[in-house]
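Hypothesis: this fold can be encoded by more than one sequence.
Test: take the structure tokens below, design a sequence, compare later.
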């Protein structure tokens, strides 16, 4: 299965046009049916746990107590795709506007000159009905800040050694900073000019 996944990802990375399992099968002179790739994609979990399983040996080779964990989110713009929960409307601070796309949160581990992704989560917004207004809206079950705190806790439980957590102003709030401090780490991040800070 791993060889097929490598073949499929190589195909996606090297293609310039529209891709499909059928086109890949045709490129292979139908040595592998398109159903092989479709079934693989339908039955394999492509989540943070699967990523950790792949990168754990590398993390263990480069880990150090002075490591840094970096949280960030990114949007893959999909202006022509239909909204379906995974593709949804998100605020893009680089454009200062709402855009249609896939929003992912990632946790990057930096140590000894190496950078390894150790966690990711797609922001999925299922269609929900508001109890009071009965209006339907695409809304996530949890916020990106809650997702970040879950990722942070997961990285800590998996004994990934790091001293600092870095984030942009989106993640610089009291709950996140307190979550970092609670596990004995330090937080470095930008803050908005309108943010109020209570000095102790």
């Amino acid at each position: 299965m791993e060889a097929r996944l490598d073949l499929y990802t190589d195909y996606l990375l090297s293609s310039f046009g529209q891709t499909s399992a059928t086109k890949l099968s045709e490129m292979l002179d139908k040595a592998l049916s398109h159903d092989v790739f479709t079934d693989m994609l339908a039955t394999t979990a492509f989540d943070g746990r699967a990523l950790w399983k792949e990168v754990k040996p590398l993390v263990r080779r480069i880990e150090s107590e002075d490591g840094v964990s970096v949280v960030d989110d990114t949007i893959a713009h999909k202006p022509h795709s239909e909204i379906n929960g995974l593709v949804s409307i998100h605020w893009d601070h680089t454009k200062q506007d709402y855009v249609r796309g896939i929003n992912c949160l990632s946790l990057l581990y930096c140590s000894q000159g190496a950078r390894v992704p150790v966690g990711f989560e797609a922001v999925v917004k299922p269609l929900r009905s508001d109890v009071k207004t009965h209006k339907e809206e695409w809304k996530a079950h949890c916020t990106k800040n809650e997702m970040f705190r879950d990722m942070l806790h997961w990285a800590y439980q998996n004994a990934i050694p790091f001293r600092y957590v870095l984030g942009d102003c989106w993640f610089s709030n009291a709950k996140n900073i307190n979550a970092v401090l609670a596990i004995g780490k330090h937080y470095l991040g930008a803050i908005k000019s309108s943010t109020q800070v209570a000095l102790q």
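The longest strand covers residues 97-111. The chain has one domain: 45-189.
Hypothesis status: open.
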